[in-house]
Amino acid sequence: MATSVANDMATNILLLGADGQVGWELRRSLLSVGTVTAVTHSDCELADKAAVTGLVNTTRPDIIVNAAAYTAVDLAESETALAWSLNRDLPELLGQLARPRNALVVDYSTDYVFDGAKPVLDGSKAGRYLESDATSPVNTYGASKLAGLQALQSSACRHLVFRVSWVYSARRNNFVRTILRLAAERNELQVVSDQIGSPTPASLIADVTANVLSLLANGIGQEGVYHLAPQGQTSWHGLAQYIVRSAAAAGMALSLKPENIKATPTSGYPTPAKRPANSLLDTTKLQRTFKLSLPDWQEPLEHLLQDIKAAAGSDAPSAIGANSAPESTPGTKSTSGTSNS
Description:
Layout: E1 3-5, E2 12-16, H1 21-29, E3 35-39, H2 49-59, E4 63-66, H3 80-98, E5 104-110, H4 140-154, E6 158-164, E7 167-168, H5 175-185, E8 189-192, E9 196-197, E10 200-201, H6 202-217, E11 224-227, E12 234-235, H7 236-249, E13 261-264, H8 284-290, H9 298-312, H10 316-321, E14 332-334
Parallel strand pairs: 2-3, 2-4, 4-5, 5-6, 6-11, 7-10, 8-13
Antiparallel strand pairs: 1-3, 8-14, 9-12
Helix pairs in contact: 1-6, 2-3, 3-4, 5-7, 7-9
């Protein structure tokens, strides 16, 4: 059942996808902006245009925040219709419904709209993708998300879109949770080392969203498309090593040591969907427009691991890993060769 949390502010916010990684964090952060009606998949079938139309007409939002999406990158290659329904058709419909009432649509896109062919230059912004760079997705997920943005723009509604990368949280299926689970079960692991990005916590995405909405309400900044990611860069292999090293330092009981996480090239780990080698996003536009300072990628990850340890005690890895879906972990293999991705 959809839940509404009110405050003293007049702004009416409709949040879709409220039970996902980003949506769950938005339940908290958006309370500083207005009254939030949080809608999960069980509340409304978002692939049903009539149901979504009825929801918007009933709630009459000033802001629609769409945190719902089809994000199973490999499955999208076979479940194409569903991926396009949620990633393209839903934003298009929201734009059409928002324009007559002058509502703002907030949506989230992905680094996967780029082909990743731009050379990575360590420590240089020259290797990062700008909002203005040409898009060229290499998989169905990226293509459907790009089409969603284009449909939203074509609707001529007011829109605020954040492109994000390598999202993780303490909830749902993501790389951090899966690595912690595998680290409790395995002595060795192989992880792809030639895909580069900046791991982004869902909490940061939610906090920046709320901050930007508040600034826009006060006449600061402009709506549009912005890249959002922490500072710095790493590979999936480097991230896996950092997770295990930091988790062990936090007191989690692990079988896997960082030095036993072996690097493997993407070519050695074929998947149904191709991944971009370079997922780095340039966030200069966001930081300058709204005068924001973004943290290094390690800082929020350290906080998350500490929170997981505090919440789950010494059995944290198995406790948080129970629901980690294999496809959520890009490019990991056990020494037996069994796929964990």
